[in-house]
Amino acid sequence: MALAIALPGLLASLWIIGRTYASETATLEQGLRDTTRALSLVIERELARRETIARMLSESPYLDAAPNLAPADLANFYAQAQRATQGIDGWIVLSTPDQQLINSRRPLGEPLPQRVPGQPPLYPFATDKPLLSGLATGRINGELAASMQVPVIRNGSAPLNVGLTVRPAEMQRLIDEQKLPAGWNAAIIDSTGLIVARRPDPQRWVGLPSSNNLQSRMKASASGFFESVTLEGVPSMAFFSKSTIYGWAFVISVPRAAYGNNLRRSLGETAAGALLLILAAIGGAVFVARRISRPIYRLRDQARRVEAGEVVEAEKTGLAEADTVSAALAQASQAIARSRIELEEKVTAATNLTRDAQKQLSQSQRLEALGQLTGGVAHDVNNLLAVIDNSAYVLERRPPGSDNSAQWAAIARAIDVGRRLTGHLLRFARWNVVRPEVINLATFLPSLSEILKTALGSMIKVSMRVEPSTRTIQADPSELELALINLAVNSRDAMPDGGEFIVVARNATDEEAKGLAPGQYVVIAVSDTGSGIAPEIRDRVFDPFFTTKGLGQGTGLGLSQIHGFCTQAGGTARILASSPAGTTILLLLPVSGAEPSAAEPSDNAPEGAEVPQNRELLLVEDNAELGQATETLLTLFGYAVTRASSAEEAIELIDAGDKRFDLVLSDVVMPGGMNGISFARYLQANVPGLPIILITGYAARIQDAHGFEVLRKPCAPEMLLAALRRVERNAASGKAAE
């Protein structure tokens, strides 16, 4: 009976032993795979850091004249390279395919090596993208090193390379920091199969070829698990992981004897327990299996988190080897995180500097155009005021019943022209990032006629023509408007005795689009009959701050804005012709792949539409005269109006509860501690469902009032009524949906 009980238990124990062996083998292999990949990432991040430094140096302005660099440019770049490599175990080499120009490890001006005719270059020469060489012996110091080569691309070619050396000692430091378990071998292999760093015995093996078995596997795939014999002749299990970016690989091998130690210990404990007590043996086997597998699983999870870019802490698992690898993974994750943070900080700083410079240049360009417009705008505003003043004078003195339609029409036209004029000025006052839109030039260009006439003055005739087949373009309308204003201001200065300013839009020919990115383009040809541009300055007119005007008469930013706008939009600006009879400038802009968005529905209230009656409306306006006029208009619309002069007073009226308001119309800029936008958000939070419309004359305030209905001053009565009814309808539909 004892045998009958023991035999099934023994068979079960043997089965458990077999399953445990297979599971532990798979787990150990997976742990080795994940550890190798994680440490390969450490090497790749270090190489990426060096590529970033070399790439930043390749974009140095001191190399813009490449390949013909002046001694001053070389000296400045040498100093820049010295600063960039502080704290880096390596040096910078600036070279042509045949000659070193700068070696930051040598004094500036010291003779540097040239390539001997018939011999290949020491390092491969990068032409279109960065590349990492294999190990080679330096011609100056005879030291083994690789190089991260980054092309210096200017005018479509790469006459120079910036190289940042990669020393085996730096790679060896990365391996030594990992503190791998005793008996484990690790190596870094370059793209040619040479050993860059190794543990153990780096002095013996660095610079020698790796095994043919490993080299053939690296050529065949990016990673792999295989049986091998180390260079010392020890049978091992190995896994390699090759960088798909740089072609270097990281290899870890574990002696087969070490692989089986833990397994044999577990199996021996299980077998001994089975001989003493079958049930205890089975329990012991399960316990031992869990004791080993859980640390490995945790180690696997930790390695995957490192591969995903997380920072991990070293864990105490109870398994010495696993604890060692866990500590190595923690160190690797921290090194990766530090490298990533440093890179992000550098990129953020560079991006912020570029964005600030672009904003300052754009604002300077706008201010120059606005200053040029000031005189014309004042003249036009005075004309509009004269029309209104004269018409009001006539209306006051006409007997009742007279036909006053001509005077009322003149006042309406003056107000409409004034509204468009202030709209243009408000757009100039904005300081925004570029927002490209689909523009239909057939409607856009005619809308600029008034502002162009203002910029040019009454002595210059404005002509515009858009050919019927002209395609739509993709550009920022505000920047395009500013470019045309700048051209108009330049033309005005070139025609002091008057002349003609001509704008023609059409599809560009293939010849005109030559030199631009493949695609279709539209050309806006802007011509004048002025004095032209002198040939000796023609190539400089688009340079920032270049001007032929006297001190205080121009900043030299107008034409640079035009060229910058066209370039940013994906096109260019060119001077087609210039003679004593005038100048023609072409603005080439890319064709849009989309159609213009559908026109907004009219804000005007339709004829015969129902006018609300006895709706309680709260008007918040601090200007007494404007408030009285608006109250009269709203009463004419059929509203029962209550007026407040500040947001605080309006809140008191609402909280008092004497009236239940159906709608609120509020100015934005008001005295007191709360403006109209803050007031609207207060109502949204405390009086939900109460519709509110904001009205302002400041373009910047419109952007701050996102989420609310906003009208721009001056607002036509029809537009005001339409907005009031639209907001009430939206509020009513929202309540119905509830």
TrEMBL record:
Signal sequence range: none
One GO term describing the cellular component: membrane
EC number: 2.7.13.3
Annotated Pfam families: HATPase_c (PF02518), Response_reg (PF00072)
Domain Response regulatory: 616-728
Assigned keywords, A-Z: Kinase, Membrane, Phosphoprotein, Transferase, Transmembrane, Transmembrane helix
MF GO annotations: phosphorelay sensor kinase activity
Ranges of residues in domain Histidine kinase: 376-593
Subcellular location: Membrane
Domain spans labelled HAMP: 290-341
Main enzyme class: transferase
Segments traversing the membrane: 271-289
Keyword Cell division recorded: no
Catalysed reaction equations from the record: ATP + protein L-histidine = ADP + protein N-phospho-L-histidine
PANTHER family hit by this protein: HISTIDINE KINASE, SENSOR HISTIDINE KINASE
Protein name: histidine kinase
Organism this protein belongs to: Piscinibacter koreensis
